[in-house]
Amino acid sequence: MTNINDIARLAGVSVSTVSRVLNNYKYVAKEKRESVLKVIEEMNYTPNKNAIDLIRGETRTIGVILPYNNNPAFDQILNGVLNKALENDYSITVLPSNYSKAKEVEYLQKLKSKLYDGIIITSRANDWETIIPYSDYGTIVSCEYTQHNEIGCSYMDRYSSYLEAFQLLKSKGHYAVAFTTARLESNSTKQMIDAYNEIFGELRPEYHISGCHCLEDGYKAAEQFLHLIERPTAIYANGDEVAGGIYLYAKSKQLKIPADLAIIGQENQPIGIGMGISTVDHQLTKIGEQACSLVIKKSKEKVKIPYRIVERESV
Questions:
Q1: Which domain holds residue 110?
Q2: Do both 182 and 272 map to the same domain?
Q3: 135 and 91, same structural domain?
Q4: Inter-CA distances, 116 with 90, 108, 119, 120, 238, Å
Q5: Does residue 313 fall inside a structural domain?
Q6: For residue 51, is pLDDT > 80?
Q7: How does pLDDT run across 293-308, given as a tens digit for each residue?
Q8: In this structure, are 168 and 243 located in the same domain?
Q9: What's the mean pLDDT in 266-295?
Q10: Shared-domain flag, residues 136 and 243
Q11: pTM
Q12: 65 and 165, same domain (yes or no)
């Protein structure tokens, strides 16, 4: 099997010259470049990508740790990452974790093996003390805020967005407000509960349902909320698909939106736009784009992406 040393010998140049040609470096004499390319063509040589990566010290590949696939919010982040990677001729490897701590560490180990130039963590199961040591082997960027200097982040102020959304409902005369979340143990759920308590006082347990990810979950949550003796007059859903399910259940019971029930979703997704559901847009595509840029630049910056609240007929 032909290798780089064979190419160098047959072309009458050094191995370093062949590697420069393979990496398309500008500063190679024209006659030497032509000689190398001629031998490559004659020998039908295909460069070994791993060998080239070792020569140039980078893979131009970024790993993206993603808890779930087919999740609208994480799909938006991934879409942003892919957009920026394509612009910069980088490849993306999706690393599904399902919030497994062991799986996350397995992926981070690949930084040590130089399989990726960096890793983007869209959402994590491990604590930062477990993750930070791997930043010695490549760039790690988080899609949530971290104060640790070793980790860059592209993030939005979720707590402020929750405060503003709850305040909007309160300003419309709603005090019996319920909400849904995805994971009970997540930092975003803790922030939402804290924001709720600040605006409305102590949360009634029956006004919070976790484990909501899709339209069907929203439908079931609405059924549970709206059968309470003191049913809520407004619901803040942790995604526009969940909000869509809430909307459909309310309509099936002939409730008027927003006169009988106000609804706010999250992330400005097509289903919410189509149904006229108000939303808190955390601009997740921009979060993904910026996270990818930070990895490409090998940066440890903290970049805050602004959120926006889009009011529609549902409030």
A1: 61-156+285-306
A2: yes
A3: yes
A4: 11, 9, 7, 11, 32
A5: no
A6: no
A7: 999 999 999 999 999 9
A8: yes
A9: 97
A10: no
A11: 0.82
A12: no
Both 162 and 277 in one domain: the answer is: yes
The HSE-up count of residue 172 (CA atoms within 13 Å, CB side) is: 22
Is the model's pLDDT at 43 over the cut of 90?
no
Task: Look at the chain and report how many structural domains it folds into.
Answer: 3
Query: In whole angstroms, what is the distance from residue 315 CA to residue 312 CA?
Result: 7
Calculated CA dihedral for residues 142, 185, 192, 162, nearest 10 degrees: 30
The encoded tokens of residue 270 equal: 């097509």
Q: Are 152 and 302 in contact (CB under 8 A)?
A: yes
- The answer to which of 53-57, 161-165, 268-272, 302-306 has the lowest mean pLDDT is 53-57
* 55: pLDDT strictly greater than 60: no
Structure tokens at 158: 């979720």
* Paired tokens of 224: 């549970």
Asked if residue 230 and residue 117 are part of one domain, the reply reads: no
- CATH of residue 256's domain is 3.40.50.2300
Number of other residues whose CB lies within 10 A of the CB of residue 1: 6
4-11 and 30-42 helices cross at what angle (nearest 10)? 120
Two tokens, residue 176: 């019996």
Q: Looking at the structure, do residues 208 and 236 belong to the same domain, yes or no? A: yes
pLDDT of residue 112: 86
**183-214 tens-digit pLDDT:** 998 999 999 999 999 999 999 999 999 999 99
On whether residue 311 sits in a domain, the answer given is no
Q: Please list, residue by residue across 151-183, b when 16 or more beta carbons sit within 10 angstroms of its beta carbon and e when fewer do.
A: bbbbbbbbbebbbbbbebbeeeebeebbbbbbb
CA distances to 7, 139, 157, 212, 250 from 123, in Å: 46, 16, 15, 16, 32
